[in-house]
């Protein structure tokens, strides 16, 4: 175990097992040519594919383990999983007054709040 020294502080790095036991969110996409693609966005470049959901999930779990083991052995930083607690749901957006007016007028014509209208536009675009 590394010790703490007042002049030269050393922090003990978590074990490989610690990182392997972290639960990372997986994003699945249907592949236009068939099967599925899986990605772990918190681990850059960690993605795979498979013919079935089961195969794809097995492949992404293997890819996650290999990604973490490789980064750990190289001494690279391994990010912690991102979670929704990192996002408040609030966003401040600056925009031209003319755009604000057009959005507000359209929302009023639709019979919804400006906030609801903007959320629906963003949802449709994502």
UniProtKB/TrEMBL annotation:
Pfam families recorded: HicB
**Top-level taxon of the source organism:** Bacteria
- Please name the Gene3D superfamilies in this protein's record: 3.30.160.250, Met repressor-like
Which biological processes are named by the entry's GO terms? Answer: regulation of DNA-templated transcription
The name of this protein is: Toxin-antitoxin system HicB family antitoxin
The scientific name of the source species is Hassallia byssoidea VB512170
């Amino acid at each position: 175990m590394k010790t703490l020294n007042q002049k030269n502080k050393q922090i003990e790095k978590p074990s490989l097992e610690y990182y392997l036991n972290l639960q990372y969110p997986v994003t699945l996409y249907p592949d236009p040519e068939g099967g599925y693609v899986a990605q772990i966005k918190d681990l850059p470049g960690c993605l795979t594919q498979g013919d079935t959901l089961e195969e794809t999930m097995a492949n992404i779990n293997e890819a996650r383990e290999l990604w973490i083991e490789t980064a750990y052995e190289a001494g690279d930083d391994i990010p912690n999983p991102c979670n929704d607690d990192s996002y408040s749901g609030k966003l401040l957006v600056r925009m031209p007054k003319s755009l604000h007016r057009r959005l507000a007028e359209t929302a009023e014509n639709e019979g919804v709040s400006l906030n609801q209208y903007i959320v629906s536009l963003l949802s449709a675009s994502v």
